[in-house]
Amino acid sequence: MNKPIVDFLSQYIELTNEEINILSNQNFMQSFKKGTILLSKGKIAKECFFILQGCVSSYYLVDGEIKVTEFFTEKQPITPVSYTTKKHSEYYLECLEDCIISIGTPENSAELMRKIPRLAILGANIMEDQLANQRMKYDDFIKLSPEDRYQNLQKTSSELLNRVPQYLIASYLGIKPESLSRIRKRLLRKSST
């Protein structure tokens, strides 16, 4: 079950057989039901997450309305800002599907770093990649029209369109569900001509 973690880390470094065995023998996994809130606004995150199976969204509640900022699926890490800053979270993390998630805590991370010291350096590289990806998504959000953002989502994360309710996709794109409906109809008409 820890193979996704090994695959993810292998993108950054070549793991030895011993390191793979250490990672494979870690048991930080938990199952969560759809609708489980992993982190609430106002709480300080004591855990970070790695999605093995399922989909998680991060969102803000603004005047009672959900504003989705990200979707996380298989082989994606989630390091809540609150986990790093030790300040109260401004947003929520919620399971959109039944999930299996590897849970990281400062204690088990320290133990893993003791066993595999190279992971400490790796953490910085992963954080740099995450920040760069977030920056590119932010830049795209600012410069692209809602229709272009939807088409970009189709190209980069098409599976989300079948896994996530359309009203949450609309929120993520920064539009109303009715606008998303119109965009989808318009694109369908274009593709059929």
UniProtKB/TrEMBL annotation:
SUPFAM superfamilies: cAMP-binding domain-like. It comes from the Bacteria. Residues 30-101 form the Cyclic nucleotide-binding domain. InterPro entries: cNMP-bd_dom, cNMP-bd_dom_sf, RmlC-like_jellyroll. Pfam families: cNMP_binding (PF00027). This is Crp/Fnr family transcriptional regulator.
